[in-house]
């Protein structure tokens, strides 16, 4: 896709990518986005161009015969996006290696801790046992997560399916200086010169790695895709049966928005052609922010749980030479995310959910919040580790109470190291809480119970909630 008329910044970027061994298809995708960026394309989706999404089927209303569900799951692969390092929580390895339970409840109190990856593996095994499906698991790793992840999977010698890889690699691309769209140089840390292309790279990576062809050759027809930090997205035979029967090439799982979901990606219908479109926050003009945040108008947010027909995807990628025509997301940051004075750069990204607009006949299905349990901050992690959720026999997280809103002081709890140090005697009970707000440097003893709208205010120094104490609206009580 390159030509002699390419801009110097594009030529430099293409050369860097070739020298780094980036797949040709990924370079072609980057080239397409670069040209859109250079032409002034912003990827914005104004409110005037869309209508609300309505009349969406609900997962709980599905009536799929058990045999059809098992058959469909038998032709389904599970794909997990596993490229994140959890840097926002101070991690430097795969986020999926983070502990989510102190012990496996089905193996006794002395069992080893469970990581996100352990739970994913256990969910796949449970679905295999329940349905007889081979259910291959493939992880899209990044260069930074691959080694640690494969080491962690090594003890699970029953996981791999013959002829299929356990993982494939996400691509990478140069960060571009905002001033002239040339690839940035950052000798202090050359790794910061590169960025992932967003999870829309899933399709290019599947195609370029050969994983897509391997799945088709092995007889698989469908894929269920989700983020590795969303343990709600367990294998679902009924959903597989519904998707197979629908004949749709692509389906997006959506959930009903609440006030907590006013920001973030949501599905809308494009007026021009009636297609379902994903609109991310970065694609919403400032003037339309209030309309986009109106949860009574735009009722459904994108869970990033997707289903697609592998044959339909392969046909579209073959038609375009591996360049799925996803909308551009222009993401402006600094080259060093921890240094706001470092040069401003543009990261060219795409969202995998945006493929909903690429396929004729794409659909959406509403799911409950039980299929959307992402962990983006330590606030989320505290709730998931708590007694609000129990792990059932299929290793699904089942809510035993409404999840409270947790707001921990970022000065002390933002990183995993700081968070774990302050809950060194275990996670408090949150079943009786509506919210928990912590300000200041508090640590928690064992057997602590949080109730109602609990709050701990800054004591001006380190403080500790005693063993067995109750934390409520007025702070700590015995």
Number of domains: 2
SS strand fraction: 15-25%
Low-confidence stretches: none
End-to-end gap: 69 Å
Average pLDDT level = 94
CATH class of the largest domain: Alpha Beta
**How helix-rich are the residues, as a percent range?**
10-25%
Strand tally is 27
Biggest sheet: strands, sense, closure? Answer: 8 strands, mixed
The coarse silhouette is globular
Number of helices: 13
Helix-strand makeup class: alpha/beta
Describe the protein's architecture and organization.
With 478 residues, the protein is an alpha/beta fold. It folds into two domains: 8-371, Spore Coat Polysaccharide Biosynthesis Protein SpsA, Chain A (Alpha-Beta Complex); 378-477, Hexapeptide repeat proteins (UDP N-Acetylglucosamine Acyltransferase, domain 1, 3 Solenoid), CATH 2.160.10.10. The protein has helices at residues 8-19, 24-38, 66-73, 116-131, 146-153, 201-209, 211-217, 237-246, 289-292, 310-320, 378-385, 410-413, 416-422, and strands at 50-52, 57-58, 76-82, 99-101, 114-115, 137-141, 167-169, 173-174, 176-177, 194-195, 222-227, 250-256, 266-270, 276-279, 300-309, 329-334, 344-349, 363-366, 389-391, 397-399, 405-408, 429-438, 442-444, 449-456, 463-465, 470-472, 475-477. The strands form eight sheets. An eight-stranded mixed sheet has the order 2-18-12-15-11-3-6-7, sandwiched between helices. The chain has a five-stranded mixed sheet with strand order 21-22-24-26-27. The protein has a three-stranded antiparallel sheet with strand order 1-13-14, with no helix packed on it. Helix 2 (24-38) runs antiparallel to helix 6. The longest helix is centred in the N-terminal third of the chain and has 16 residues, at 116-131. The termini are far apart. The mean pLDDT is 94.
